């Protein structure tokens, strides 16, 4: 059995993992970057469409291009990495953490480290998760699996598809399937508004005349050996109208019904998870409930843009480096930390990350709205009193909101024990 | 090799159907110096009723002692420890609880207890509220008492079938997959069996263990014209991290038609809830329905309140062959040398080891000469399971064969080596690999690994992309190449 030690292990070498590893490296920390796939880049490698990098690189890149820029930097920095390597276990030890690794090339290895950055990303919700009834024929794929088969392996999953759910991968795949010669008969969304980005509705559905059925539930998948159709029905007043159901014939069903952060490894290590996001509960440093374990990217919460994943991961890397500098010697960290104020999701907010913040420093908060607003106010309250607000336009559940709470905000109340709540309200008048 | 003049293979016994009954009969007969053929209409074994059921080794109290099935249940259940040692399939005697939620249910429980005592069910006891909650703290606080059958257990039925078929093959039984018996003619002292795809074989005895289709097979032989109907059972499978997972199998108090919907801690660490029990017209209809699935959750939650839809990873349905109240295991009264093993619904899995013996004895009494083969080997090497290995052992194994280091199925932690082992043992469909290895059976349901498995199947078998199926027939997975 081989082994080695480092300051920090980064689990997952997608956008989040590579960005976190680079940020740790820049701070002089020794890092080991591990990924189970044969190449760095994660899901970006199968996202051959463009639209990546506008925020981070100031230009529009494809997924593989975005990944390759980070990979080149990782390689140029000489950061040690393992690909084709699965992290089997993550355990706490007296001096930090021990990770058990498995690969064909190196067999079973043990890494000892003082800190860990979780960057494992997410998995697609599947048919079972949303309990679609019917038969279980061949031809039912999650959209990401279909994307992988088409864009990397070169196989067409079907000739006529119905896409269930209007998540971004589903929308991208509606266009991709069409361009590969298949017909996309419909995109079916149970909600009254699409869950993917507005630009993807325009560029992937409207440009190709693909019908979008909003407020339609999927009742059954039909077909014995291979899919023959999908039965759907409209939703009215929150209830499925089974009497108005109809069948759309197809040989393929692609599911784009959301992503779930992959935290089974984290949970086994004792990392506390949010019941809403399935991501770790983190403080403003992006540190989980297990000291020394940080999280960034889709393993923490589902992002809309990879640029935001990279930004978050760079912060996680820096926080991890700060923690490594100060751990065991609080005075050397250069910053005395008080207890953080809990941050909760209030009216119209599905979740907010982090779940606590330090009022003496500026804090980046990521959140998702439950409802669309043309104009909205983001309001931070503490013990019923408004302490900060910001105006927003074009809020939609499909797009992440990132905002920075300024430093020194509630210094006057710092002695109070109350949580802060972040809420969204419609801002029709535009006053205030 | 015993070939007749026209080159058609000739056997002493041909068993029609490689579900749990056919597999058990084949393995039982494999210890004797006779030629046995096992015929399966599907592309792989255990692809019918035996792949989608509750996987319970029952406690011997559910059925009155007057039935053959009650006797075979007790006899069969007793053999599972030995079979596990010989064959290495996962099996645990975790015990069975029947939980009563109302006083009148307690009366029914007391009846089950007396029935179990009369049947000879080992160790069963009546439980007070306190006792049953001690045995299973996750039960509803509304439980008022119940029954405990410590000998009850859990098994993965398909893994059990796979291992029995492997053992039978190791000892000389020949498996014919995709062999759907479409005709049977008498020729001298033999039956000539034809398959739908034109293959033929001869046999002295035929055993009809065709499950849902035992009625059609009987008609092929010109034998009894009974009708098998199909009773559908729908299930939800919950994640291995689901907090509701009990330590023991939890039954409700049974109704007149079924044992009710259970909460089952599967032998692999997941939790199964179900089944429903509804007669359906179509014997190939294994679709699930939204209404029934809603019933399952409600029923399971009344027993174990922490059951949550949030933990569901998949749903599925299986069909049970229903004939009469009891099993029908006997020689045909109409045609010679045909044994029916029909109507084997619950507790068929539990009884299957005893069914094998029972059918062997029928054949013996009819004059089939059975002399033991001294080279018979009851043991199978356990398949490699990297998940279960300690670090040092895993290290050594990967050093010997690096493919055991490449984890293909992340959710169930199944390596490339294990998948290759399954494919080389003849499980060459996505479902075959799934049921043999568990790869694709976890929380992502193949989202991350099925493309890798498709490529491994192609690499190992030489199939092209357009030949790979989910479970044989025309269940093709891919529709084109760029």
List the helices and strands and how they pair.
The complex is a heterodimer of chains A (432) and B (482).
Chain A: E1 2-11, H1 15-26, E2 31-34, E3 50-52, E4 61-62, H2 63-77, E5 81-82, E6 85-93, E7 96-103, E8 107-118, E9 122-124, E10 133-134, E11 140-142, H3 143-153, E12 155-156, E13 160-164, H4 168-179, E14 183-188, H5 198-205, E15 212-213, E16 216-222, E17 229-236, E18 239-240, E19 246-249, E20 252-255, E21 259-261, H6 264-268, E22 293-295, H7 306-326, E23 341-345, E24 349-353, E25 356-357, E26 363-369, E27 373-382, E28 385-395, E29 401-405, E30 420-426
Parallel strand pairs in A: 1-2, 1-8, 2-5, 8-22, 10-16, 11-20, 13-14, 13-20, 14-15, 23-30
Antiparallel strand pairs in A: 3-4, 6-7, 7-8, 9-21, 16-17, 17-18, 17-19, 23-25, 24-26, 26-29, 27-28, 27-30
Chain B: E1 10-16, H1 20-29, E2 36-39, E3 56-57, H2 68-77, H3 80-87, E4 91-92, E5 96-100, H4 103-119, E6 125-128, H5 129-135, E7 145-149, E8 153-155, H6 157-170, E9 174-176, E10 181-187, E11 190-195, E12 200-208, H7 214-220, E13 229-238, E14 249-251, E15 262-265, E16 271-274, E17 278-280, H8 290-303, E18 312-322, E19 328-331, E20 338-342, H9 348-365, H10 391-400, E21 407-409, E22 414-415, H11 416-424, H12 430-437, H13 450-461, E23 480-481
Helix pairs in contact in B: 1-6, 1-9, 2-9, 11-12, 11-13
